[in-house]
Amino acid sequence: MSKTLFYNAKVYVERDTFAEAVYQENGWIKAVGSNADVCALAADDAEKIDCEGRVLVPGFNDSHMHMCFTGENMLVPDLSKVHNKDELVAVIKKYVDDNPGITGVFSQSFDQNRWDDPTLPTCKDLDAISTDIPINIARSCGHIGISNSYILKQLGIDKDHKTWDGGRIDCFEDGTPNGIMAETPNMAARMAVPSITFEQEKKALVTAMEYAAAHGMTSCQSNDMGVIIKDQAYCYKIVDEVFAEGKGLVRYHSQTYVDTPEELKEKMNDPRFYKGSFHDGWFTTGPLKLLKDGSYGGHSAFMRRDYDDQPGNRGVENIPDGKMYEMVKIANENGIGCAIHCIGDAALEKVTDCYARVQEELFGDKANNPCRNAIVHCQTMDATLRQKVADANIQAMYQPVFIRTDMYGLEERIGKAMCYTSNSPKTMRAMGIHVSYGTDSPVEDCNPLVNLYVAVTRKDMAGKPEGGWYPDECEDVQTAVDAYTYESAWAQGMEGVKGRIKPGYYADLTVLDHDIFTCDPMLIKDTLPVLTMCGGKFTYRK
For residue 11, which phi and psi values (nearest 5 degrees)? Predict the structure, then answer.
């Protein structure tokens, strides 16, 4: 039996409430309080850890990310630090040259908005690397990418065939597709690159979990099934085996994507995809995941008016309203919530209206949301649309870390007025909206402390701009920690067993090397765990 006493700590219990000691047995917190009281309750054979005054908080719970894909991205060329398209091509070429016999290349990590010159490469640039294997290079958001001519031919895309439902295919001036594609055709291009092996997928998941645990994470709500790994049963087997082998270091809650209402009906009673719990609660299955639109970076977020910097473009609508309504209703009828990706205001309005309609039809009131339907990202809105979200009692799975990129170029893209009311978790929370935190990793680093830093300061990693970007939305540290722990647990219906350091809760916790509640906020991003515990097991120890 695991028994651990943590003492001489600054234990964050809940807002304005701190304790000195915590005792856990067999993965459950048994006592929280003063050193004297808790030490007196601890078993003689318990491991005793002197925290030396350090902060102890609940383990962080990423409410939306892609854990398998985060691991996959650690095994492919890192394009996050290139400064232009020529450097990108050079990195990919070196990777191909260094791996003779490779059957394809996929990488998702570049951000052209950070480049010296934001001009994207085209299929011609990738063809200079190879026309004999498929190459697909996606922007960090995953919603737009570039493919070589090998993939274009495989997908049947040419001058006479360049339309795709739920997506966009860009062309050269002569009308020939240039390899740049957004949304559904880009996803098809990604799937044209041969997958890594089953054992490599398991290694990728373990690698990502090791990184996450080393940064204080104990739970993730991960969208891999059906999107990152198209075959849901195959993905389930990967995750299941990792936990069966004792290598799973982070509790995994699946947000599972399916393509059609018919497929969703088939999966309703299969716990591998929805409402399942395995390996003593370390692996659970949760909501239906859908994609309504794209991203700012790819100009594919679905907007109610044209982009200011791309007249005539309002983004991409991935799923039509009728199909979305049918799938949300099927899920809610079966007691399953939905988590729908929305970044543009047109997408957000349509999804909010859909949720309100289903909730009123099934539960008698548009504000009655027993399934805890959620909007993932929930970024672009004016004050009226924000009120609609509140009126329908929809939760928001929010990624503060996006701000460090959005602050550069977003005003030119959607206007200052819209920026003022968008990316506004503080205001949404004040309106009664449940707001949880995540990173959408590997779109952004899944390090929770960087995410907290951005939530509190609304600055980039260099501490700019002075005072923060739209600083009225800066969170205090305790609220930000709650959003990343208790509120993320609420998002998955587990607020009674995780997200707090209290008796009767999982022994999921992390001890930090800085006091994030009192230190200079600039230091939060540099804070690291001294140890992480999940279910009474040390998953990281410095």
Answer: -90, 120
Q: Give me the residue spans of the domains in the chain.
A: 3-58+507-515+518-541, 76-191, 198-490
Cα gap 23→25, rounded to integer Å: 7
**What pLDDT, on the 0 to 100 scale, is given for residue 161?**
84
> Got the DSSP string for 253-270?
EEEEE-S-HHHHHHHTT-
Whether 187 shows a pLDDT value over 90: the answer reads no
Strand partners for 180: 146
Q: Is the distance from CB of 283 to CB of 252 less than 8 angstroms?
A: yes
Q: Is it the case that residue 1 has pLDDT exceeding 80?
A: no
Respond yes or no on whether the N-terminal peptide bond of residue 465 is cis (omega within 30° of 0): yes
CA 394 to chain centre: 18
d(CA 497, CA 471): 34
Q: Which residues contact 19 (CB under 8 A, 6 or more apart)?
A: 9, 11, 13, 32, 33, 34, 38, 501
- Computed on alpha carbons and rounded to an integer, the radius of gyration of the chain in Å comes to 23
Q: How many CB atoms lie within 10 A of CB 455?
A: 27
CA atoms within 13 A on the CB side of 324: 26
Q: Tell me, what's the pLDDT at 163?
A: 87
- The whole-model pTM stands at 0.90
Burial class of residue 539, CB neighbours in 10 A (0-12, 13-18, 19+): buried
Q: Render pLDDT for 238-257 as a digit per residue (tens, 0 to 9).
A: 999 999 999 999 999 999 99
Q: Which CATH architecture has domain 3-58+507-515+518-541?
A: Roll (2.30)
CA–CA distance, 174 with 196 (Å, rounded to integer): 36
Out of 2.40.340.10, 1.10.10.10, 3.40.50.300, 3.20.20.140, select the CATH number for domain 198-490: 3.20.20.140
Distance from C-alpha of 381 to C-alpha of 401, rounded to nearest angstrom: 18
Q: State how far the alpha carbon of 473 is from the alpha carbons of 209, 406, 454, in Å.
A: 31, 14, 11
The tokens describing 101, both together, are 């016999």
76-191 folds as Diaminopimelate Epimerase; Chain A, domain 1 (3.10.310)
N-term to C-term CA, the chain: 23
Range in 62-71, 110-119, 173-182, 210-219 with the lowest mean pLDDT: 110-119
